[in-house]
Amino acid sequence: MPKLKLTYFAFDGGRGEPIRLALACGKIPFEDHRFPPSDWPTMKDQTPLHQVPVMEVDGKVITQSNTLLRYAGKLAGLYPNDPLEAAHCDEAMETIEDIVTKIVPTMFMQDEEEKRRAREALAAGPIPLYLRRLETMLKERGGKYFAGDRLSVADFKVFLWTRHLQSGQLDHIPKDIVQRLTPTLTEHFKRISAVPEIVDYYKKRAAA
Amino acid sequence: MPKLKLTYFAFDGGRGEPIRLALACGKIPFEDHRFPPSDWPTMKDQTPLHQVPVMEVDGKVITQSNTLLRYAGKLAGLYPNDPLEAAHCDEAMETIEDIVTKIVPTMFMQDEEEKRRAREALAAGPIPLYLRRLETMLKERGGKYFAGDRLSVADFKVFLWTRHLQSGQLDHIPKDIVQRLTPTLTEHFKRISAVPEIVDYYKKRAAA
Questions:
Q1: Residue range(s) defining the domain that contains residue A30
Q2: For residue B129, which residues of chain A lie inside 8 Å, CB to CB?
Q3: What pTM does this model have?
């Protein structure tokens, strides 16, 4: 097994979290390098694309969060072998990345009024569109998991995004938007929350 | 082999082109559904995420351009089996998607002055950063191909992006930016341009 070091912000969310969760659930040893956001201004220029997460694999850097999640998924036995099932897994992962890329800029808006307008526009159009598409994908693929009728890294990525939407951390985006628009995604959220390895992981995190 | 239908704009570029090229080079039969950009306003709402490319696989729709490129690559024998080599392939594909997502909004700017400022900012910062990172990746992985020391869909995606940068279609981004900053990427561009299946493909396209 290669020596892995994952570098990401010191919080249990964002683009790094699905990778941590996949490696932890698959019992793949890795160095979980977490840094406080206050270190970011000095660290930023030292990362290849001024972004995190980055992973060192035997000392060599790899970037791009879905690249790292797919790689972690393969090591952890949480990524399908079948090309069409793998495409279903990828589609869910990339759909989340696509909508998150639209939401992230609002996190850096200093002007409260500008942020409110941007978030309300997202809650009125793109977020419902993406939630409904995810629900359709889930239903077409058996209703329980996003790929191959079993747990995969796609489920981790969707679960963590719907958790974020429900967390209340995103002002001006109604906390009940998932529950109200996409009941099958809400069921999916509950199903993945209850995966024993995930329950264990967050128990340990809470105690850390 | 599944029945494939790829829907994308009627031009030989953009997010659909690497998928067409991979399927054509791999001799994988597919329906190449091209539509004129003037049809887009009426078609847009009929696509799952108001985006193309989309692919139907035995009549079922899949979205997300890198998902489709990875799937096409597997069918065509142009995607690595080894997890680390696959991560190298994914990283190049996703790095291109990442920078293209920053460039695409400038294509819809109506205000020429706004477009000029946005393009000049990209040419001063992000585009050189991404080009140099791609060059570093290429060198670290043997200098010729982006993954597994052989041709993969990552090479197609990088080649088509550097072709676009050199095409002169992007006002305010110097046409010689690739050649000036990243000689190893320029060599890569020439190498991939000369792949016999790619030469054949564009001969046929020119005659079509």
A1: 4-78
A2: 49-50
A3: 0.98
